[in-house]
């Protein structure tokens, strides 16, 4: 036997740990309770004594009410508020927030068998959802319990669960949001704080959630029942009006309140002070207001509709502040300010409204008469208008929400439904009136429905024990009430009570002060009657029964509302009412009819039950009032339900449903059973190994006694689903892949044939084009020397095109590249123009890239080229060398020389050798060029200054030596004669002197010798001869002899290339 392993989760429940694949199961756990029913895992654990059992069916003493309540108490103390009675969920209101409604909890309950996890409202919601999906039958969840037991919260949790777990799309998400957001809106307008519940639903609500074939919520519909309109004008002490009034006053913006004529103080309004409870610690009206405004936007209200809706709410408060004065029979309104506000908010004429609130219209013999109202009648008319405006606006609001939830997709009109019934709980107050009578009547009908659907097999036992539900008594009371309202004469609440005594006075469950014994009379008023309900005795005060049942509004008040410019009120008050002569149905009759329709709706669906219990009257967390709970257990019929679950069959299904679901578990019934349904089910259960005591076969249904039998069948089905799914998937994949291959093969053949045709046509077309081209080319070649004609135009165009493309590929790369393709004769002139344009473009591009420094260098080089190219042997050696701005650094020139020069700016300096005019002795000197003169320096002295104006010319030999002569004017007395100098950079030096002195045309290049002036009319001669080494000396003939080195051949273009590389 497999070891039983358990896990205690944070909520205190005990569950089976998940298997390897995440499933919850136990293959061979033989844990069976002593009574033979299914064994939930808690029954085998010692922790059961602390937390109680999860299912009351597992109680050993299941007939004991004390054991039942003790189990509830244990679980309540451990914050385990949910417990099962079979498939019925019992919920105890904890009056505090529990961390059991998170997304993780929702995931845990999604798609899990009902009994595999601990009791929870999510389990009920998921079970209904899966039943709807698998069995294709509409479901409903009936939430019952008295006021304050948590019914409204339960319905909200179910909606939240469906919103989270159901499939979603963009459209579906919109519906989900609207379903969820309808709750805060309806609660604001239909819920109020009562003595027993801070958020009590003062109307009944049945909501249908519509699901498409994929299980996604796609729409919804809400039906409302019997709004407690009297709360608008009156509240018991300790109670409040509807939430929306306080939310508007507390949360509304200042501008909004100013526009509505409201103050941020509920004590200023008569309709809000009667209960003397403007604020409640558990309610945050400001945050609730923000939630309501957001919800209205999500549902689809536009700004105009919201404005008109709030105008109506504000107008009800102003109506309550309308004050009357004057003499009896001549009532007038003393609060003109309220009338002004009402006229603007309701969109009606103020004078007409004033008259309607102080007079009533009487039609007698076809004539209309205006009869003044007394003070009491006027106040009643005002209150009736307030109730009518609020009640009809609430109905309009529900219809508006329904319109936003409407399923609009006509392509799938068949949808499944899960209904949620959240309707008033059984109410017993100190003062019970017409509203409590209707509410308790509704609860009687729901209890009767519960009996018919779940306790039908126990009807005989109920009758034997005297626990018979008799809703017929209400039919009698309602009929009598209607008769009294409709009969002519002075009908009153007391005459209604007297008629009740005469008609139903003999019924065992009815008693009045007149019919009661002496003991009972002490606790009953003369205007009360008592009914014995299934939940206990309730005293009803008949005061106001007739007025509330009639629910009449004076005709002239209806006429005023029909003339309203408020679009909502225009829809609420139909003008056809004014022409309809038929008396409207009474409130009780309308309610009874709508309740009958509700019963029909619920009877057509598969029900699930949530029975809510209130642990105490003080709304305190952790307090367990045993007396109060015992009373609720009794009137909810929970003990009777438990006895049925233990004695009867836990599961029953029609043969066709059972066989359809489980036929795959038996080879004989799979895939289809051809015989009778009963025989098919018998074959199936025999194959599954059902024991005779575990099931019974009826005429059209199978009854299974133990849930464990059903669980084992479900587990087998889940296992079988995997193998079936694998086979179906394999077959489908094979079929789909084969179909896909056939389609691909057919498509490939078609594409290949089409493509081959295209290729063949393209080849043929290319051949034709090639033949035409060759033919035209040959013909053009033959006629090439003729004038342009159709025969040679193609050839000539081709020749031109070929030349231009060849030129495009072989354009010169730089200005020194002189290559150019040979053009055809027809393009010779155009070729020459293109060559010039190309050269101009290259020159322009080259010049654009030259820097100022390089431009200056090139200018000097160009001057040097003009002066010395092909004239002086050592010029080619100077070409690749850059000219510098000076050959002497600052430290090479004595500061005294610089001081002597003064403001003259030095442009060039170079070391030179000066040869004396007598003896030709060589002396080292420095040659400085300024803007105005050339200065020869000897260390610290200015030896000679030659003004450029006195410089007649410059002589230099054609050989490779560095000697040159500066010829000065003989008229200049400052000069002793011409100056003979030698420089290692003679080309650079002479170019600089020529530029500075502007003597470019005064440089003479001599062959053989140079004659110069020595002084005093004497001349000297310098002879130049080539030789193997440089030699400067005085010859025997008295001349200066210069032997110059022979110059090796040197390519000038190579020099330029080297110069460019250096730059």
From TrEMBL:
Keywords: Acetylation, Actin-binding, ATP-binding, Cell membrane, Cell projection, Cytoplasm, Membrane, Methylation, Motor protein, Myosin, Nucleotide-binding, Repeat. GO terms for cellular component: cell cortex; microvillus; myosin complex; stereocilium membrane. The keyword Cell membrane applies. SUPFAM superfamilies: P-loop containing nucleoside triphosphate hydrolases. One of its GO terms (biological process) is glomerulus development. The keyword GTP-binding does not apply. This is Myosin Ic, paralog b. The gene is LOC116038869. Its main location: membrane. Residues 52-718 form the Myosin motor domain. Pfam families: IQ, Myosin_head, Myosin_TH1. It comes from the Eukaryota. Residues 872-1046 form the TH1 domain. The lineage of its organism: Eukaryota, Metazoa, Chordata, Craniata, Vertebrata. Gene3D superfamilies: 1.10.10.820, 1.20.5.190, 1.20.58.530, 6.20.240.20, Kinesin motor domain, Myosin VI head, motor domain, U50 subdomain. Belongs to the TRAFAC class myosin-kinesin ATPase superfamily. Myosin family.
